[in-house]
Amino acid sequence: MTSVEKTGNKRLTAAQLEAFGAEMDAIRQRIIADLGEEDAAYIRGIVKKQRTFELIGRALFYVPVVGWLPAVASLSISKILDNMEIGHNVMHGQYDWMGEPGLSSRMYEWDNVCPSEQWKYSHNYIHHTFTNILGKDRDIGYGILRMDEDQPWHPYYLGNPLYAFLLMVFFEWGVAFHDLEVENLVAGRRTLEQNKPLHAGIRRKVRRQALKDYLLFPALTGPLFPLTLVGNAAANLVRNVWAFNIIFCGHFPAGVASFTQEECENETSGHWYYRQLLGSANITGGRLFHIMSGNLSHQIEHHLFPDLPARRYPEIAEEVREICERYGLAYNTGRLSKQLFGVAAKICRYALPTRRTATAPHSPVAETPMAA
Fold it and tell me: What start and end residues bound the annotated signal peptide (predicted)?
């Protein structure tokens, strides 16, 4: 039984896939034709709010003791908006049509230790091209976790829950070093020489972020330096935890399918849409929740239409869901608590061997799927 069949979905015929793809194409073209000032005003407004929250947060660190918690809260919101609703979406090219340098996917740099150019390759190209294809999509487990039963098991994976916790806490660092493919270095499939072109960009971005959050802004508050430094670290932690949970709930809860490379050979446009749909999941919530998630609470729509402004995902979600129902395909959605439980269950379940997998005789990291 394939992963698709295990999720309760059916395999579509070639004709059905072509028709399904045509309906998805029609949605995309309709939204592109409708883009305009309302979309531009929205993203400009989000940028303004993000900068306001950052300014308030930085200012409150000058207020001893009582200002610390509000400062952390305000700065956390700023960093979440910067990474989720602005940075992630802008770097997908969702606002390139506006022609504004500050919202250009080619020029935008986010508040994160991962260099934008590096992230655009690993995420925009690798992950969105090869979504949930084992051996191609390196976001399956991020080179650290076992998140699918078709990943060969090794005793290393007994630490799955611990690795997941550490990845959550240090999520921006995990993303930053993702392209170094440490698991491939350990397995001998990649050399240090191949990583050299990445080193300068990572060092430059890490240095910039560390100086900003852990030296410059704390130093500007004078004797309050220690409190400001801890506050900046706390805001980064909040952003990391939030981003990790939203992203994992969109990719790894119960019911999400994976694919083999053989299944995706000579893939048509319709099958690509089909794979994006079954390899993603949504999270229900209100408008504020969707904004704070960068609308990645609509991960299904994001994987179907990664270059459309994310603010449009809620308006097309019901249409996508109705199309799925007509084709007999599951539309995986649920409350945050439900999806989190599904993710946690997978992390714990796949820490243990499954009946049809055997213990690998060599490095566990080497068995992690390769390929954003």
Answer: none
